[in-house]
Records
---
Amino acid sequence: SKHCSGQDFQISRVLVSFNSAVTKEEEVLLEQYLVGWDELIKFMEALGTVFSFISQEVKGKIGILRELQSTARGNEYYSVRSMMDHELRHNLVNFHKQTNSGCRTLLRLHRALKWLELFLHKLGMSSDESNTSDLCQEAYNEALAPYHSWLVRQAASMAFLALPERKVFFDIVCIEHEGEAQLVLERTVRSIVRVYNIMQEAYHSRGMLNLP
Ligand code: 1PW
């Protein structure tokens, strides 16, 4: 359809961004990773105003990370691992209380990406009778709800109820024929899984999966 050109959201751009975020040495490039999230922001904005509190929150996290990249030590924020090692080396990561470290900020995006992965996977496997709100809620319950407060969980559930139905959804993500939906979504899911697994291991090996 018409909006699937130019600057609007296209799911293929998410795939390209997250693919290009991973180097041959299995490093995740922070800037490219954030470009992937810029695309997801467009996605959320296309889903309507009920998603604005979610997109605002994500924009805030992206902003904190870009801010860190723009400081004198910005070059240390080149990749996920270089960021982690820099912040750990300089005691910038607090394991007991909430700060705006790059590590804890990126961890929030990292967890949220799991939700998106599960949601897109479920969407790809779904049939005509499937309800996008249910799929989104199920993915959220599995991946993200355990990390959120009661209030955030309620607000998120309200937003999911306003998700458009499947056909409209496929139009928003710029999948023209339903037949290609599964393929496009699975490719995107694979690009997300690849980035996610590398980052999960990086957080895990440094004991940082539970940063407050
Ligand atoms: C339809 C597909 C959308 C996929 C994008 C996924 C984005 C998920 C973001 C959820 C945000 C909910 C509201 C904010 C909650 C924050 O408390 C929470 N942030 C996140 C990103 O999970 C935790 O951040 P905090 O409070 O520890 O700074």
Note: The chain has one domain: 11-204.
---
Amino acid sequence: GTRKINSKKMVTLKIDGFDVCVPEGTSVMRAAMEAGIQIPKLCSTDTVDAFGSCRLCLVEIEGKKGTPASCTTHVEEGMQVHTQSDQLKGLRRGVMELYISDHPLDCLTCAANGDCELQDMAGAVGLRDVRYGYDGTNHVNQRGASDELNARWAPKDESNPYFTYDPSKCIVCSLCVRACEEVQGTFALTIEGRGFDSRVAASMSEDFFESECVSCGACVEVCPTATLQEKSVIEIGTPEHSVVTTCAYCGVGCAFKAE
Ligand code: FES
């Protein structure tokens, strides 16, 4: 008899005018990727479940109200999706503007310069100017004025021997928390606080070294900014190539990614 390799029903939809056919249950974002359409994103990777927190991947779907996140929206038969309208471009620029208004502007001296998804997305959405800052002042003053007020601008946690945690650069996408839980099966990280005070923290402990963290590096791998940064990268720069692995204790890597 014939073996059915993919038992899922296939769904056909249109994205930016292109017909795309993908298995049911696929996200609109993944379907767009299959069609060669890149939707801006900051909180979604292939290794953890979609969460929909960054709000950059918004799309328009004909017949549906609002602008849903494409990473958490599943495809439906006959869907007509638009990913590049003027409204969406404006919304994405607005979202990026808010991120950057609350982020240190030290890109030139940052260890992640040139390898930072926040920086890449600011460019991808065409952000040229930021109109506001955390407390209504411009961001240069804002930084100094808010250091004591903003929990995320607490000092760096350098207690782990392999990586640093810089709260000032966190956009609270929660990728690290999800990677810790879903990839490693550890619950060493959590999000605490609300609004401007929300931050990633080592759960059950004051710092990473004392926490349940087993230094697997899953959180560092998924961090889209310089918040979680390998110490070796800070000291000797970005490596010429890297390996990707989903096994926490495997140093070989399942996939090789040439830079
Ligand atoms: Fe979809 Fe962040 S990638 S909301």
Note: The radius of gyration is 20 Å.
---
Amino acid sequence: AKPEPLKIMISGAPASGKGTQCELITKKYGLVHVAAGDLLRAEIASGSENGKRAKEYMEKGQLVPNEIVATIVKERLLKPDAQENGWLLDGYPRSMSQATALMEFDFQPDVFILLEVPEGLLVERVVGRRLDPVTGRIYHLKYSPPENEEIAARLTQRFDDTEEKVKLRLRTHHQNVEAVLSLYKDVTLKVDGSVSKEEVFSQIDLALTKLFEDRKATSGTL
Ligand code: AP5
């Protein structure tokens, strides 16, 4: 039988490197990346009423109300590609109520990755972050600079990537993180996120390779 697809959650403070690691994980493991923040930014770009409301909270670094974010995430997880290939859920759940709502729908992770980065590094990562609107890739002016002038010229910055706003986002993170961690402690993989992105990925890759091999062995495909 085909092994069960992997289901992974990734968590960590703002700018701890979740999106960066998701790029690397999906490239190797073919999972569907479901990022709450990206889904909300797409909702804002669509000009919908929900998008307008979401932006008010995001500008203040606060959690967007569940009635907006929960449905968007749940619908994305239920799409056939995520069901067939497995999912990598990024930035969700961020509160006890979001986690319990997921459990009611039986969305349980095989592993909950927690990126640990000292606070002093986070502000620098946020203010130097740039995004390529064409490829969706994440860059950093110092740590992950664009490959050429053409890309450099089109890079954009997120509206909540200022020093002032990241401090608000960090406060929200600290208020909510413990409750979520306590629910997933049996499947938590703590990763040192302060090293280079390649070194962070090798810690994750090691654990996922093992999980993947175990899956194949138990389903009899090895
Ligand atoms: P969201 O978009 O999820 O933002 P966040 O959690 O603050 O995380 P970021 O996307 O800022 O950072 P990241 O960890 O992905 O880091 P990245 O890889 O880009 O959420 C935004 C807002 O949406 C929230 O504030 C909230 O309002 C709302 N929201 C989201 N989820 C919600 C939910 N569940 N419920 C309610 N509201 C919700 O890396 C950052 C930078 O560092 C980059 O420049 C990168 O190149 C660089 N970098 C990465 N790794 C390394 C490394 N190892 N070494 C050096 N530099 C690195």
Note: The pocket of BIS(adenosine)-5'-pentaphosphate is lined by residues 12, 14-20, 36-37, 40, 57-58, 61-64, 69, 91-92, 94, 98, 125, 128-129, 138-140, 143-144, 169, 196-197, 200 (CB under 6 Å).
